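Quick log. Single chain, no ligands specified.
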Amino acid sequence: MTLDNLPIGRPARIVAVDWSCLVDEEAQRLRALGLDEGARVSVCYRGVFGTRDPLAVTVGRMTVALRRAHAGAMQVEAV
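-> predicted structure:
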């Protein structure tokens, strides 16, 4: 399952990221925020209009806003 499809409040671990579908600067920013393989995450909010952007994702003690396209590049497994 990808991070953009993870149910709200369900904890998960990132198992793979398709870095090739992200611009280099975006990939670097996501890594700096801790969104890389092995990170524990959970979705705490989804936008309500059309694309349901942005997603609010908890990573450790931070909450980070992500575009759905970025979250779709991350494969997760529930923990």
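The longest strand covers residues 40-46.
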